[in-house]
Design brief:
The complex is a heterodimer of chains A (115) and B (114).
Chain A: E1 5-7, E2 10-13, E3 19-24, E4 31-38, E5 42-50, E6 65-69, E7 75-79, E8 88-95, E9 105-106, E10 110-114
Parallel strand pairs in A: 2-10
Antiparallel strand pairs in A: 1-3, 3-7, 4-5, 4-8, 6-7, 8-9, 8-10
Chain B: E1 3-7, E2 10-14, E3 19-26, E4 32-38, E5 44-50, E6 56-58, E7 64-68, E8 73-78, E9 87-94, E10 102-104, E11 108-113
Parallel strand pairs in B: 2-11
Antiparallel strand pairs in B: 1-3, 3-8, 4-5, 4-9, 6-7, 7-8, 9-10, 9-11
Classes of the chains: A mainly beta (115), B mainly beta (114).
Chain lengths: 115, 114
Amino acid sequence: GAGVSQSPSNKVTEKGKDVELRCDPISGHTALYWYRQSLGQGLEFLIYFQGNSAPDKSGLPSDRFSAERTGGSVSTLTIQRTQQEDSAVYLCASRRTSGGADTQYFGPGTRLTVL
Amino acid sequence: AQSVTQLGSHVSVSEGALVLLRCNYSSSVPPYLFWYVQYPNQGLQLLLKYTSAATLVKGINGFEAEFKKSETSFHLTKPSAHMSDAAEYFCAVSGGTGGFKTIFGAGTRLFVKA
């Protein structure tokens, strides 16, 4: 596709439920990032995938959070047993290469609300 | 570890006035520096970036930023604000000791008054 897409755009769930958020990166982009944007908190790095290398999971806030990237393309971020503090906008970005100077292209985000 | 500090969570300017959004970074090696903009209800998009070429970087919509190593700063400026510049602006750093991870600042929301 022309840009990074994410689904769903909005997700409302009850506390304790599991949710899956999907990211479709730009075709051919080898690097993929997940961030969390909370009100007034900026962007919090969650996880980074680069090609077939082991992902950098250093930003995941707890073991309730996990992510995978299948076939080097689509990625799914899973949050188990959601808590109210998980409410935020989850952003996905892709980058053509792993180079630090390369631009990240962001998706529109998934707004997660945990009741 | 790398870090980014944006001074001022909110900045308000009058239309036609100078825009100055401040960003300071911390890195033990020369970093790559970025400014991203997020317009209301839209995703983040790149405004400009510094990649160790010219220290004065020009971006879209008349914005520019100057990399000052001695001050570890990368402030964003625009000579004359327009109403359409109202948005949230994020400074980010990557490369160097941070590897491929990009660290974002907390953001500065720019308000433009008529």
